Amino acid sequence: MKNIFYTALLLVTTIVVVASCKSTAALFNKLSDYKGQRLEYGSQGGITGGGTTISIIENGQIFSTTTNPEVEYYHGQANAKEAAALIAEAMTLIDKHGEMTSSGNMTYYLIYNDGITARRITWASEAFPPEDVKAFTAKVEQYLRSAK
Fold first, then answer.
1. CA dist., res. 46 & res. 23, Å (int)
2. CA pair distance 31, 29, nearest whole angstrom
3. Cα–Cα distance between 126 and 115 in angstroms, integer?
4. One digit per residue, pLDDT tens: the chain, 148 residues?
5. CB contact at 8 A, 74 and 90
6. How many domains does the structure of the chain reveal?
7. Range of 106's domain?
């Protein structure tokens, strides 16, 4: 039951974020132009093997990248202080739990990327993350809804 809930929640969040795409010029026009710290959150796998990664950068800009086909979207900007706090919290969680890796048909992930290296926590749909990671991903989803 939890598996269906988390899968549906991630799908709904992705659809809402993608549906609210704006053509407003970003401070960084493409995520690939940005080389600083960022938080990446998403999933991949399933029948198509595709995935979606939501990226929050330090200045609050939000991007998503899909695979199969490879497409990048800009979703707007939210509060920069909150973005920096989320990035720092992600780094703390990954330090606390180590690079926990569990994969399955659908794999979810939380990545701290400093522009040079990336550290991650991954979990399969049937192997849920620790409670503090679940609470953090809910906080990230709330932040995504605040983008303008």
1. 30
2. 7
3. 31
4. 555 545 544 444 555 444 444 433 346 777 877 888 999 999 888 777 889 999 999 999 999 999 878 888 888 888 999 999 999 999 999 888 876 666 667 888 899 998 888 888 888 865 577 888 889 989 998 998 887 7
5. no
6. 1
7. 2-145
- Contact indicator for 63, 55 with CB cutoff of 8 Å: yes
| CA end-to-end span of the chain | 33
CATH code, 117: 3.30.1560
Q: Which pairs from 133-136 meet CB under 8 Å and 24+ separation? A: 133/93, 133/97, 136/89, 136/90, 136/93, 136/110
Dihedral sign computed on CA atoms, order 83, 57, 25, 147: negative
Based on its alpha-carbon atoms, the radius of gyration of the chain, rounded to whole angstroms, reads: 14
- Tell me the pTM: 0.73
Neighbour-count burial for 63-72, b at 16+ CB within 10 Å, e otherwise = bbbbeeeeee
Please tell me the distance from the alpha carbon of residue 92 to that of residue 104, in angstroms, as a whole number.
Answer: 25
